[in-house]
Amino acid sequence: MGSSVKSGSPITTHVLNTGDGVPAARMALSLHRLDPSMAIWNLITTENTNEDGRCPGLITSDGFVPGMYKIRFETGQYWESLGKSSFYPYVEIVFTISDADQSCHVPLLVSRYSYSTYRGS
């Protein structure tokens, strides 16, 4: 990846509803960065996934600096909007960026009773 960060967000995500085999459209999520001096999470943005379950515009290249980040996915609200219950009210994925020239794709695979993630490309 290196310096191939395009004009889009250097952090992207894609949420798949694996229980139903469809993209998780309109799931609310938020991106945060850890302030290491105060050990608190600072909110960067709140967004919703699009119809394809993607959220491409989380942070600008200018605002992207090395550090610890987390994406909080509001999975409980998502399932509730579909008239279903779920075990997890939210999912938080915490990850570290050591090079601001890299891009980072953070997929989430979610069902009502499980979730998984991995470092995407």
From TrEMBL:
Top class in the EC scheme: hydrolase
Main location as per UniProt: other
GO cellular component, one term: peroxisome
Compartments where located: Peroxisome
SUPFAM superfamilies (UniProt xref): Transthyretin (synonym: prealbumin) (SSF49472)
Matching CDD domains: TLP_HIUase (cd05822)
Catalyzed reactions per annotation: 5-hydroxyisourate + H2O = 5-hydroxy-2-oxo-4-ureido-2,5-dihydro-1H-imidazole-5-carboxylate + H(+)
Function comment: Catalyzes the hydrolysis of 5-hydroxyisourate (HIU) to 2-oxo-4-hydroxy-4-carboxy-5-ureidoimidazoline (OHCU).
Protein name as catalogued: 5-hydroxyisourate hydrolase
Natural source organism: Onychostoma macrolepis
